[in-house]
Amino acid sequence: MSDNKQYQDTWHDLLALKSNVDHAHRHTGLDSCTLELYQGFVRDHYCSALIKMFPRMSDVWDFNWNEISNEYFKHYAPTAWDLNDLAASFPDFLEKTQANNYLVELAQYELAEFQVYKSAKKEFSESPALQVNQTLTSLSFKYDIAGWVKQMDEWEALGEFRQLKSSKPLERQNIVLLVRNPETKLVVFTQPDMLSVGILEIIQQVEIANPLMELPEGLTHLFGASFAEKVSKEDIQASLYFLKQQSLVI
Amino acid sequence: MNSIPFLGYGAGLRRSHFNEILSSQQFPDWVEIISENYMEYGGKPRQILQHLREKKIPIVAHGVGLSLGSLDPFNTDYIRALKELIAEYDIPWFSDHLCFSSSNRHQYHDLLPILKTAETLEQIADKIKWVEDCFQLPFAIENISYYGESTKHTMSELDFLNELLVKTSSYLLFDINNVYVNSKNLGHDPEEYIKNINHERIIQVHLAGHWDRGDVVIDTHGAPVPGPVWDLYAKFLKLRGKPVSTLIEWDNELPSYDVLLQEVDKAKELATNVLGEHHVGQ
Predict the structure, then answer these.
(1) Which of B7, B8, B94, B177 is the S-S candidate for B245 at Cβ 3.0 to 4.6 Å?
(2) Residue B247 belongs to what H/E stretch?
């Protein structure tokens, strides 16, 4: 093995917590204090990346983040070149560790929030047709995660950390839509009703020139005639207005 | 060197200044971005770059993830994303560090010191030649700060860097704060380093602050440029005798945008004092 290969393999074992500083000292020729310093830097980058990606989770969860981080990266190798992307499997990891379901869902929400923020897609194209925000991400939850997030953010702004720490979401099956606002570039969530979800799905599938004429037919295909018959033109107009207000449609 | 423009005095572009930049009429002469914070990103990061491009502020890409010193092959997704970023913003040159930040497919997200031997020199020179060929754009390597010397080195950093510049066509991004930090931690003579580095290949200078922890000086980029680093910059300019694109790096404990611009002005003022008014505007 070449000197450089041995040098780098030794660093790898040290930073992946597969060997100790004494071993690394013998094979890199670097003193133990220096190696400990670097080991600390790297573990700190990993741990900080998780805390930064899951800020509300770190507010409500009392676990030792250094331990969790070490355990996570033992099972999910840190192979992403974007530090933020290292967190991509954290919700899966939580699920496997049998964390509370609502914590898993909170992790899924916070990860999706970042992914929508990062998305390389433009929110809308130049097309004049009715279109759905390209950054749209849909999440299905058993708990009211979006309502909990909103409440947590308000408590945090007010400095009410005790309330925040002891809080839990309500159990309620729901859908949450996340999009990036084309003006502010901030990520916003919406909890839509069934009609709005249906309209979004139709606009994503076919080009709509005349919404009031074409959407009822699409709703019939999607949900059946009995649902579509109960939807008035005013309902469709109100739903489209809501979707535009929420930056979901333009 | 003739094709390399002198960009003036710039600042590292950081997320917490985005909104101030969008509403401000004041800009540094140029900005440097951390490439990985923009590669494959849309939204606000892209909006800022487009805004700066409209304002005709040059953008230079400075990476932390190329991992030139690693024995792993280059990550092809990374290379593609970096090429896309560079092509989109008319970037005049790009840079990364003389270090390895990954091995065995693991990313460490830190700049780790290479083993300075003839074998490593050949390996890194080959990688740089590949980068030069692939990107067809001026590329610069930066001297890093590091916190210990391996007993297994067979070359000094100065010799290693100068030799690397001979073996490749790359340029040097000369970080004067790193020279100072290394001198404090490892007992190098910073003035000897500044005197003997290959000045002809220096394309850009970094200035930054650090944290003296007592037992070790850490390159935090979290404070104003301290006096001894300004002094070294002045000595460097005097030796060089001509201006060089200079950038203030501030990554932690970020000041307001106005204070950052004042630090940039300070660099320009110092260069004016050392070189004279007529040189600085070149």
Answers:
(1) B7
(2) strand B245-249
Residue whose token pair is 């949450």: A176
**Smallest CA–CA separation between A115 and chain B, in Å?**
9
Q: Outline where chain B has alpha helix (H).
A: 18-23, 43-54, 76-88, 118-135, 157-167, 176-186, 190-196, 227-240, 257-275, 277-280
A6, A7, A178, best to mutate vs chain B, most B CBs in 10 Å: A7
Which residues pair with residue A139 across a beta bridge? A176
Residue B15, chain A, CB below 8 Å: the answer is: no
pLDDT band at B113, cuts 50/70/90?
A: very high
Residues of A in contact with B43 (CB under 8 A): 117-119, 180, 185
Q: What is the rounded (10 degree) CA torsion for A77, A81, A86, A88?
A: -110
Q: How many CB atoms lie within 10 A of CB B164?
A: 22
pTM over 0.90, yes/no: yes
**Under 8 Å between Cβ of A207 and A191:** no
What distance in Å separates the CA atoms of residue B198 and residue A11, rounded to the nearest whole number?
Answer: 30
Instruction: Tell me the two tokens of residue B119.
Output: 């074998």
ipTM (interface predicted TM)? 0.92
pLDDT tops 90 at residue A41: yes
- Cβ partners under 8 Å of residue A136, min gap 6: A177, A178, A179, A200, A248
Whether residues B71 and A8 touch (CB distance < 8 A) is answered with yes
